[in-house]
Amino acid sequence: MAKWMEIRKGADFQAISSRFQITPFTARLIRNKDIVGEKEIEEYLHGGLTDLHPASCMKGVPEASELLRRKIRQKASIRVIGDYDIDGVCATYILLKGLEQAGAEVDTDIPDRKKDGYGLNMDLIRRAKEAGVDTIVTCDNGIAAPAEIAAAREMGMTVIVTDHHELQDTVPQADVIINPRQPDCPYPYKKLCGAAVAWKLVQQLWEDLGCSREMLYGDLLMFAAFATVGDVMDLTGENRILVKEGLRQLQRTGHPGMSALIEANELPRGRLSAWHIGFVLGPCINASGRLDTAKRALELLNTTDPALASALAEKLKDLNDERKALTEKGVQEAVEQIEGSGLKDDRVLVVYLPDCHESLAGIIAGRIRERYYRPVFILTKGEEAVKGSGRSIESYSMFEEMSRCRELFLKYGGHPMAAGLSISEELVEEFRRRINEGCTLTEADLTEVIHIDMVLPFSHVSERLTGELELLEPFGKGNTKPVFAARNVAVLESRVFGKNQNVLRMKLMDESGTVREGIYFSSCMEEALAELKEKKQLHMLYYPEIDEFRGRRRLQLRVLNYC
User: Fold this and answer.
1) Which residues of 197-216 are buried (b: 16+ CB within 10 A; e: fewer)?
2) What would the mean pLDDT of 417-443 be, rounded to a whole number?
3) Residue 85 near residue 54, CB atoms below 8 Å
4) Residue/partner pairs of 362-371 with CB below 8 Å, 24 or more apart
5) pLDDT of 316-354, one tens digit each?
6) Do β-strands 376-381 and 386-391 pair in parallel, antiparallel, or remain unpaired?
7) What backbone phi and psi angles, to 5 degrees, belong to 266?
8) What is the CB-side half-sphere exposure of residue 200 using CA atoms within 13 A?
9) Residue 199 and residue 238: Cα distance in Å, rounded?
10) Which of 93, 231, 350, 502 has the lowest CB atom count within 10 Å?
11) Beta bridge partners of 133
């Protein structure tokens, strides 16, 4: 059972309300996000493109622009090498279009998830050399490939690295490295995704060449924003501005590929939000790299043929539907294994699903972590070894704990909240035993804490208040939706619907006697219904929203949790 804690942070909400022409209610929500000071509040509410930092202050950007301009004049062959996820695909597209517009001879390559694995490898380097490539520009990868980059340079190729991942012990000896996380990089904002870093390079290149910037702040900005949400970057500071402006572009885009993807998913163009990127459109791009090839997603972004765009978009949607079905199957198998064995007593869950597609391990691990609130490793059977992905909780540093039994792994890596590994099949049970023996998590650590912004009776919820909450958008990691609580709520009516029978629509009445429509999503609907029947009254966490369907608007409460 999660622990609920109300956030109580003080400030002169009336003064903030008066200064920024917002209600004290909104002022309190902003203070709850630890945004203080006039400059920070002003940027949070009204930050725009003019508040972005100049690309030229990012280490390596001026040098890379100069080098690329020289290569363009020499008509040298340039190859962009990206990655197979949403950030890598969008970054590849941004650099491809940016270099084409600058007059470069440029093509692309993206690794295959199963055959190549993440990032640069020697096959990609050799393919570039055999194709007569003069210059490699990486995006969303490269900072962890010193050997491959050294080999490329020994073959006579120039290498420019654009990346956003943490630096490893050995920094590649590339001709130029652009990565805001470099310790000596003066760029003030460090949390850009790979596509945003690529966008910054194009911005500088076009500025130096005197190119028209219309596309830079149109489609290319849209894809930098798309990747920022899809790669689950913090929606703070510069990222928040990019996404806010990028969403405006997305809502009115005429881009053939993105338009086709929006239509294939039957989404309301004018109401597109960060949620639609994170949970509908983005997963279609990612599904391409998971179950097929990410080159198909790049082809969708790159085509100008509406008929081809429509066909490709439908294919990506089909792949994502397949991915969702396989994920549900994997989650169900994992739950059955946990509940039907001694695994349910472990503080760290290690679940071996040999028949599961390895690209889904991380998604399934995240779902199981949500259900049990424990660190989770999902292992699958690869061609040469067992591979796995882990997802953690706040009080457990996954990479640090794995390092204590590093001799068991063929390969491993990650950070406190997520990790990847490969291991011999005969050592799977030993890994489960060792990782649990070394675990020091307490019951308190294994109790999820949900922070509540305020207790808000239903009588205070109105369309006006819901509209005011839009000032805080876009929502996502680092800028989550506010959470409200209501006490002693009675469920007057309820019915289950949805394709997978996972949606519960309710009529709710709180202790003030105010009645509101409620909606609750659950992958365990039978359990939810049983709990609701047992309780006459509930304490409830919710978020108010406007449901628009076939021209009809209605106020409803998105139920997040209850007890």
Assistant:
1) bbbbbbbbbbeeeebeeeeb
2) 93
3) no
4) 362/389, 362/391, 362/418, 362/420, 363/327, 364/327, 364/330, 364/331, 364/334, 365/389, 365/390, 365/391, 366/391, 367/327, 367/331, 367/523, 368/331, 368/334, 368/335, 368/338, 369/393, 371/335, 371/524
5) 999 999 999 999 999 999 999 999 998 999 999 999 999
6) antiparallel
7) 55, 50
8) 32
9) 13
10) 502
11) none
Is the pLDDT confidence value at 144 over 80? yes
Is the pLDDT confidence value at 523 over 80?
no
Lowest average pLDDT, out of 286-300, 488-502, 503-517, goes to 488-502
CA 515, chain centre distance (Å): 35
Beta-bridge partners for 79: 107, 136
What pLDDT does residue 525 have? 76
Q: How far apart are CA 453 and CA 448, in angstroms?
A: 16
CA atoms of 452 and 485, how far apart (whole Å): 7
For residue range 468-495, what is the model confidence (pLDDT) as tens digits?
899 999 999 999 999 999 999 999 988 8
Q: Tokens representing 407? A: 């001799």
Q: How confident is the model at residue 86 (pLDDT cuts 50, 70, 90)?
A: very high
Predicted local distance difference test score (pLDDT) of residue 530: 75
Rounded distance, CA 93 to CA 118, Å? 18
- What amino acid is encoded at 249 in this protein? Q
* H or E element that contains 474: none
Residue 91 makes CB contacts below 8 A (sequence gap 6+) with: 82, 83, 139, 140, 162, 193, 194, 195, 197, 198, 227
> Which residue type sits at 168?
Q
Q: By three-state DSSP, how is residue 95 classified? A: helix
Stated length of the chain: 563
C-alpha span between 293 and 53 (Å, rounded): 35
